[in-house]
Design a protein that fits this description.
mainly alpha, Arc Repressor Mutant, subunit A, two-stranded antiparallel ribbon, elongated
Length: 103
């Protein structure tokens, strides 16, 4: 979804965003699926469709390591993702409301 981060920033309560913008639900629901590899062994870049939207909104952080001697960034399969504090808070609110489940 284009401009998710801007839309997310306009809402204090993610439940309001969920109710008022059905197109944002798919992105928010991915918070419950954030992990480096899913049960099928697929990397997050392969199964989380909206990880970049979540990152732009500050809900997840992606660690992209660089090879220290060369400064060249490692390829995506070496990247890691985790919920930020804000992402954990939003996930908790949505889970308590019964809107999102955890993986």
């Amino acid at each position: 979804m284009k401009q998710f981060a801007e839309l997310f920033a306009r809402y204090e309560d993610p439940r309001d965003l969920w109710v008022e913008h059905p197109e944002a639900r798919e992105i928010l629901s991915e918070l419950g699926k954030v992990c480096n590899f899913n049960e099928d062994g697929r990397h997050f870049t392969q199964f989380l469709r909206h990880w970049q939207d979540l990152e732009e909104a500050g809900l997840v952080e992606v660690y992209r390591p660089d090879h220290s001697p060369t400064g060249i960034r490692y390829s995506q399969e070496f990247w890691n993702i985790e919920l930020t504090e804000k992402g954990q808070d939003v996930l908790g609110i949505l889970m308590d409301a019964g809107l999102v489940g955890e993986l």
